[in-house]
Amino acid sequence: MGKNVAIIPARGGSKGIPDKNIRDFYGKPLIAWAIIRALNSKMVDRVIVSTDSEKIASIACFYGAEVPFIRPANISDDNAAIEPVLIHAYDWLKDNEGYKANALVLLMPTNPLRTSRHIDKCIDIFSHLSVDSVITVNESPSHYTPYWTLIKDKHGKVCYFNGNDIRSGYTRRQDFPETCFAKNDLVFVIKPLNLYGNKVSIFGENVELYVTDRIYDGDINNMEDWQLTLQTFKYLESCSKV
């Protein structure tokens, strides 16, 4: 089996919540939960934090992650995409250590609801199927699907997302022609080759979904998200589900 490297991206700058990645979340810095879940995974070989912050680097090392480099400033601003961050990490390991990962396991620290089981299941799917990536999703609530999502068209008329007349839409979710899913940022398992070539993308062409329970859907961007996610975390903790 190839080498599976968890990459946890954590910038020092955060406008919505200052120092978000190292702010206390249920007794530990937020980033610690991603590190702990990755270290407890049976299928992750290395856990690496990619950060531009010496402070985050120090805390990440304290919780057991590796921080073999400090991320360059040109891929650490608000507009930086995730692909250059992963390319930098993969290339650094290859060029400086001769270490070539078989799979990159991207773990966003902003969703602390993931479990080690989620990580292991995604890697297991990736290792047994000929796919470019495996991503966690949950089934979208009915009112968030395109079939019931409303927009205003260019004339200001309310219609469904696909442009259909609101009077002729689906009245029951059971009649939806397809099941819709939402990315929940728990786990992305990525073939490194996806990051090179004409169309650079974490997803690649052949994507497989791992559907999780919707209670694990979380993404902290502001204090309201923080409080809601914290309450969910406490509930899952009480049920021994995190």
Q: Which tags fit this structure?
A:
242 residues, alpha/beta, Spore Coat Polysaccharide Biosynthesis Protein SpsA, Chain A, 2 domains, six-stranded mixed sheet, 19% strand, globular
Counted by DSSP, the helix tally is: 5
Mind summarizing the main beta sheet?
6 strands, mixed
Mean pLDDT over all positions? 95
* Helix and strand run: EEEHEHHEHEEEEEH
The helix content, as a percent range, equals 25-40%
What is the second-level CATH architecture of the largest domain? Answer: Alpha-Beta Complex
Number of strands: 10
How would you explain this protein's 3D organization?
The protein is of the alpha/beta class. The protein has helices spanning 30-39, 54-62, 82-97, 116-128, 223-238, and strands spanning 4-9, 24-25, 28-29, 46-50, 103-106, 133-139, 150-152, 158-160, 181-190, 207-211. It folds into two domains: 4-138 and 181-238, Spore Coat Polysaccharide Biosynthesis Protein SpsA, Chain A (Alpha-Beta Complex), CATH 3.90.550; 141-179, no CATH class. It has a six-stranded mixed β-sheet, with helices on both faces. A two-stranded antiparallel sheet has the order 2-3. Strands 7-8 form a two-stranded antiparallel ribbon. Strand 2 and strand 3 form a beta hairpin. It is globular and about 60 Å long. The model has no long low-confidence stretch (mean pLDDT 95).
